[in-house]
Amino acid sequence: MRMAVIGCGVIGRVHAASIAAFAPRAELALAVDEISDSARELAELHGAEFTTSVPEALKRDDIDAVAICTPSGQHADLAVSALEAGKHVIVEKPLDVTVEAAQRVAAAERRTGRTVTVVSQHRFDPASKVVHEAVHSGRFGRITSGVAGLSWWRSQSYYDSGNWRGTWALDGGGALMNQGIHTVDLLVWMLGEPVEVFAWADCLAHSDIEVEDTTVATIRFAGGALGVIHGTTAAYPGLTARLQVHGDRGSAVVDDDRLAYFHAAPDGAGTDGPAYGAKGDNNQAGQVLPDEQEPAPAAGADPSALSDAHIHQYRDFLDAIEEGRPPLVTVAEATRTLAVICAVYESARTGRPVPVDCRDLDGASGGEPA
């Protein structure tokens, strides 16, 4: 599988390293960036060619797939062009900045028969997989609520570092769209079909950006579960991303991608008795996921840049192409998460509850509602 990376910045380098991890099954053949020095540097690092022309890259018959790592508002146009050129596509999150743009990618995927996946690498974390299995196998009973929280810090210099950052057109939003989307994606993956949101958003600690740095929202799911979303890049010095899932027979907490707490009532056992807390003998996390199974940086990689989760998502992408099956993170799944975030922004703008329209997503309904 010969691949091209379009966009050779920080995240493009992560994708290039992920591709390199699968040599000789996959190889980075071409680095593409409008800034020639960026393209040349990445190409030289991986023994690849480089170009500043996307059309030139997509015309090449020896390129089988592309990774799209440009500013978010360019994702759909590039994905559609790549699909129509006969390439398989892996798109960095988010799929794009509007649901309408995401639907154009879905239509192109159906029309061309190529495979598309969107980066949601934390679905591949061992902790996320354990909690998802517990939710959807019924171990936690009826799912009642979930909390997706991200408390990070981004300095003003971060937003000043690129003229696309903090813009609606190319960033698509702020703390929630750019940073919090992974945690929101996990919440939706766990709790099922989202129905309605109500939200507030504001820019409280940064200047000269169009988008929010702080968002809070509530979300209702088709199965009755209720959720809370909190995303901020205004929490100095920056804490962790955290997901809580609660049911009437169990609960779990994933903190900083690790399983911090897990408890499920034994089969046939009642749930009367004292309340359980995250401390003491009631935490089963060490039993269901020993430390050696926790995510770790890939061998030889910069721990801040590449983790096993990226490797697992690329493996799923390659397997899906070779086996002719959908990837774990489909266009429909990515569009559903995007629809939630867009609804959050619309609610914050209007001051009203906003429905999450998940119809027409490749016929998918989001799996079993919690």
What are the main properties of this structure?
alpha/beta; Rossmann fold; Dihydrodipicolinate Reductase, domain 2; 2 domains; eight-stranded mixed beta sheet; six-stranded parallel beta sheet; 11 helices
At the fourth level of CATH, the homologous superfamily of the largest domain is Dihydrodipicolinate Reductase, domain 2
How would you classify the helix and strand content by structural class? alpha/beta
Written as H for each helix and E for each strand, in order along the chain, the element string is: EHEHEHEHEHEHEHHEEEEEEHHHE
CATH topology of the largest domain: Dihydrodipicolinate Reductase, domain 2
Number of domains: 2
Which architecture of the largest domain per CATH?
A: 2-Layer Sandwich
What does this molecule look like?
With 370 residues, this protein is of the alpha/beta class. The protein folds into 2 domains: 2-121, 3-Layer(aba) Sandwich (Rossmann fold); 122-302 and 331-355, Dihydrodipicolinate Reductase, domain 2, CATH 3.30.360.10. 34% of the residues lie in helices and 22% in strands. It has 11 helices and 14 strands. It has an 8-stranded mixed sheet. A 6-stranded parallel sheet has the order 3-2-1-4-5-6, with helices on both faces. It is globular, with a radius of gyration of 20 Å. It starts with a strand and ends in a 15-residue tail after the last strand.
Secondary structure blueprint with pairings:
Blueprint: E1 2-6, H1 10-20, E2 27-32, H2 36-46, E3 49-51, H3 54-59, E4 65-68, H4 75-84, E5 88-91, H5 99-112, E6 116-118, H6 126-137, E7 143-151, H7 156-160, H8 175-191, E8 194-202, E9 214-221, E10 226-232, E11 241-247, E12 250-255, E13 258-264, H9 285-288, H10 308-323, H11 331-350, E14 354-355
Parallel strand pairs: 1-2, 1-4, 2-3, 4-5, 5-6, 7-10
Antiparallel strand pairs: 7-11, 8-9, 8-14, 9-10, 11-12, 12-13
Helix pairs in contact: 4-5, 5-11, 6-8, 8-11
